[in-house]
Design brief:
By secondary structure, the chain is mostly helical. The protein has 18 helices and three strands. Pfam families: RhoGAP.
């Protein structure tokens, strides 16, 4: 995980200047008497899209762990079309960035057990999950790289603070915020849960189930595991699953396939507990455990994403036989 901070003033300036460099006003184009290559009509979110391209280029060129792997922020500058973007970044190892630290403030939502949040809110799905999904589907489902492209760290932290402390300002803030920051906030929420959404207890069973070679046995096992989840976890997972499927339906536009989305969310929703890691550390390092399991985590989520629609009521009624026999 690498955090990138860019000042709001610099961000706005970059967007405006990039638009001037890369976009031609339609009226100016029509006034010209010389034949020119047709240009696309500029949309209101052009600046944000261009800024996304700058960030993508930044990620490809600059995020080399060997050069930024230190505790200090690394200052740098990137140029694009004659425009300089100043930024700060630091590298955090996967072991640390994915470590879950329960919140000491039980009044917030980040780092608080999901059943505590839903009980307090008197809801089936946490408010933060519902609002972020709604906003992404409203204006971000066509965004190229949605959920893959990182939002600005300061924007995500601002949203986190508002969700934790002041629900009155959330809707206004969401409507004005960059959509990648909202997507990043949703990912951060799941990453900071005290335990993964698919739970520590069931993690070994998910790893065994996805490895089954017999399709019928795998189906029985994977559905049984969903039914074994606590109700708040299951009732949050299913709407998220449906949302990600809707995002993938726009793959020709947003370039996010089911596999891409599983790669982004799999290791966040499902990963070994610290106890599992400690138990295996006498054999290999924690980093090796992460690397070994990450593909299986992706495959678990991909299995459910590729599965026909799953309803909570049907799962609870169904009494499919659970088997791990190959």
């Amino acid at each position: 995980m690498t955090e990138i901070l860019v000042s709001d003033v610099n961000l706005n300036s970059v967007c405006e200047r990039l638009e001037k460099h890369c976009c031609v006003d339609q009226n100016q184009h029509n006034l010209s008497s010389q034949p020119q290559t047709p240009v696309l009509k500029r949309h209101s979110n052009t600046g944000a899209k261009l800024w996304g391209r700058v960030r993508s280029k930044l990620l490809r060129q600059k995020l080399d762990p060997q050069t930024v792997q230190s505790k200090n922020w690394h200052m740098d500058v990137i140029e694009m079309n004659g425009i300089k973007v100043e930024f700060s970044m630091k590298f955090t190892s996967r072991d640390l960035s994915l470590k879950r630290t329960p919140s000491k403030k039980q009044s917030g939502v980040f780092g608080v057990k999901i059943n505590v949040v839903t009980k307090r809110e008197r809801s089936k799905v946490p408010y933060i999950v519902r609002q972020c999904i709604e906003e992404v589907e409203k204006r971000g489902i066509d965004e190229v790289g949605i959920y893959r492209i990182s939002g600005v760290a300061t924007d995500i932290q601002a949203l986190k603070l508002v969700f934790d402390t002041n629900t009155k300002d959330i809707l206004v803030m969401l409507s004005d915020m960059d959509i990648n920051a909202i997507a990043g906030t949703l990912k951060l929420y799941f990453r900071e849960l005290p335990e993964p959404l698919l739970t520590d207890r069931l993690y070994p069973a998910f790893m065994e189930g996805i490895a089954l070679s017999d399709p019928a046995a795998k189906e029985n096992c994977m559905m049984h595991l969903l039914r074994s989840l606590p109700d708040p976890n299951l009732m949050t997972f299913l709407p998220l699953l449906d949302h990600l499927k809707r995002v993938a339906e726009k793959e020709p536009v947003n370039k996010m396939s089911l596999h891409n989305l599983a790669t982004v969310f799999g290791p966040t929703l499902l990963r070994p507990s610290e106890a599992e890691i400690a138990k295996a550390q006498h054999i290999t390092s924690a980093s090796d455990i992460w690397s070994h399991d990450v593909m299986a985590q992706v495959q678990v989520l991909l299995y459910y994403l590729q599965h026909p629609p799953i309803s909570f009521a049907e799962l609870k009624r169904n009494t499919l036989y659970y088997s791990t026999d190959v």
